[in-house]
Amino acid sequence: MSxxxxxVPAARIQAVASAVGELMITLGVVLALFAAxxxxxxxxxxxxxxxxxxARLRGSWSAGPSTAPPPALDGRSGGDAVGFLHVPALGPDxxxxxxxxxGPDVLDGGVAGLYRTPYPSAMPWDAVGNVTLAAHxxxxxxxxxxxxxxxxxxxxxxxxxxxxxxxRVDAVLPETSxxxxxxxxxxxxxxxxxxxxxxxTLTTCTPAYTSLYRMAVWGSLTRVVPMDARRTPPQELGRxxx
Length: 242
Known about the structure:
alpha+beta
């Protein structure tokens, strides 16, 4: 074989390798752009849907505070809103609509959802029970993206038509299995609680941008503030939320 003949295959191999390398780089860039676009777009859609749903709920409250407890909610649907979750540690204007259910049809709307299985969530106005909530860590509004910023002593407030329910964070479970349903039990397993009470549990995926594990934040009710005509928030929120 001539020297020229021996160099042709090597050149072809180099060209193919170069083409494959460029293709892989291009594919990586496209996937990265798609991931960024998907997160941005789902956030945009979720924010729009949640804003409309929040406006409808506040519009239904415009007649003034209700003196009766809210009606029973249909646990098979996310169609009935409960109220709003406020967490000052996540920002002065942090407000998340609360709806029943934790399926994609609910959580993808940029809300926090009440668990219906395996332990049905209590409602804030129940005399005893654990109000259990889930929300996305990333995409679809990413309402619990910064949940890991919460720590013991931080206030968590639920706003309903009739009352403000003020909770205090007592403990955080940084990581557990997605199958660890005990964290949302009426008396959550692994929490500081050993008897029935009025609790709240917030859960989301961890680490960020994965669904490998779950984290849980546990709190207990400290007081209930009746709603006045101006919907004046409790001092934990600092100023009027709208």
